Amino acid sequence: MIIREAVTADIKQIQVVRNAVKENMLSDSSLVSDKDYEEFMTVRGKGWVSEIENQIVGFSIVDLTDNNIWALFLKPEFENIGIGREQHDIMINWYFSKTKASVSLGTAPNTRAKLFYQKAGWTVIGTHRKGEIKFEMTLDNWLSINNKKRNWVSQINTIKKIWKRND
Length: 167
Hints:
Elements: E1 2-5, H1 11-20, H2 34-44, E2 45-52, E3 55-63, E4 68-74, H3 83-98, E5 103-107, H4 112-119, E6 123-128, E7 132-137, H5 139-166
Antiparallel strand pairs: 1-2, 2-3, 3-4, 5-7, 6-7
């Protein structure tokens, strides 16, 4: 599996992924056009795709104009194996390399997406649009999360060194 920057030639496969989801489904797939994807990927922000054997299995898009996660979706058969979290982290790292402004997103309540964002360290800040939960990530929170990850990795590496010395 590779994660790479999305290009406009990916939009057809991105649409397939978006329309395959089981939660946070579009009520009408024509609500999000190819032009919308192109604008969000090339003008307003940036997108990434996850590919396995030349097939796009997931994508994410962040909007710098409105400081918003516009999309993060996977084909259902590729959920719960770490692809979404990897895409999330790449997207958020890129976002905060461009701005210090907090970033938000909305998702339906009582979904796996809600749990995903909570586990990733997002803060619930209210509701919006038809009862969706509104989450926020600040730069300080993201840096704190990443420092904890680095410390954890450092601790594991230290433990491995100790084990090698004791072997």
